[in-house]
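Appendix B, record 7
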Amino acid sequence: MLLDELEVAGVGLGVDLADRERLSPIRRLQLTPLLIIQGRADQIVPAAMNETFAAAYPRVSLWLVAGGHTTERVRPFLITRAMQWLAQIATEEAAATQPAPPPGALTSPTP
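Structure tokens (predicted):
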């Protein structure tokens, strides 16, 4: 469900239309990866909402995990895994932006 669908469904979001437009991730450039950790039994944010969001944007990674809205509090290993995911993304992006050595340049062998 997207924001407009929630509004139609009568779910109050606590923000007016101008704020929704300003804060909407849909209006931002899709430059960086986004990780969403979603509890399958979440009663606050339905899993279907984040599944729809993740399906619409290739940069979004969705982890569906056991638990509810505050599942990270009872499963702190999820934070560790999320940090590992972030480190991997940073490593990949750094490698992608590393300039190639000029042809014929001496490079040190990797250990």
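Remarks on this record: The beta strands are 34-39, 60-65. Residues 1-31 form one domain.
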